[in-house]
Amino acid sequence: MLTPVGRARGFTLLEVLITMIVLAIGMLGLANLQSKIHITEVESYQRAHAVLLLQDMVDRINANRANAGSYVSGTVLGTGGTEANCSGISNLATKDRCEWQNALLGASETSGSSNVGAMIGARGCIDLVQASNNAAGVCTPGIYRVSVAWQGLYKTAATAGLLCGKDDYGDDAQRRVIATQVSIGLPRC
């Protein structure tokens, strides 16, 4: 027959076992939370970097407003495997596109011989939304859309309406895109 002291020891052992199970479940939850925090941090960094690249090209176009149409590219920038030497280019718009392509490829930061200064699979697009028309009575400004796309780490809703980087990342639900429009007014209107 068990004495009251023996029963108390059995209950204590059971209580310790239950406490360890609860703590183990809590620790697994914390580990899961930590991994989600890391993914969110990387996504946030990529978005911040994309905003910087987007603003860089907007500033370049605004600085060369007279030749804004020369910035429109028929191809997606950032798809080349290596950076180009932009120093010998005399046309400002072409040089700006070349330097922006290098930034999309991550040439701003290197680790050894690898470029690491950009988002995963960074792409850039400059599209003509509306051509300028300075005809009497019309006076419509030129409108250009600058977009930056990259690959996210997890799936979200697919980006509708913005085609930059479309089908470059396998599943379109992993494509992230930000865009802005640059309006180039006509001074004579």
Helix content: 25-40%
Main sheet: strand order: 3-4-5
> H/E element string?
HHEEEEE
Number of structural units classed as domains: 1
| Terminal Cα span | 104 Å
Strand residues, percent: 15-25%
Sheet/helix structural class? alpha+beta
Count of individual helical segments:
2
Q: Give Rg in angstroms.
A: 27 Å
As residue ranges, the low-confidence spans are none
Quantity of strands, as a count: 5
Shape: elongated
Biggest sheet layout: 3 strands, antiparallel
- Average per-residue pLDDT, rounded, comes to 88
Characterise the protein shown here:
The protein is α+β, with helices and mostly antiparallel strands and 189 residues long. It has one domain (4-184). Helices cover 39% and strands 17% of the residues. The protein is built from two helices and five strands. The protein has helices at 4-63, 92-104; strands at residues 110-111, 114-115, 123-130, 142-151, 175-184. The strands form two sheets. It has a three-stranded antiparallel beta sheet, with helices on one face. Strand 1 (110-111) and strand 2 (114-115) form a beta hairpin. Helix 1 packs antiparallel against helix 2 (92-104). The longest helix has 60 residues, at 4-63. The chain is elongated and about 95 Å long. The termini are far apart. The model has no long low-confidence stretch (mean pLDDT 88).
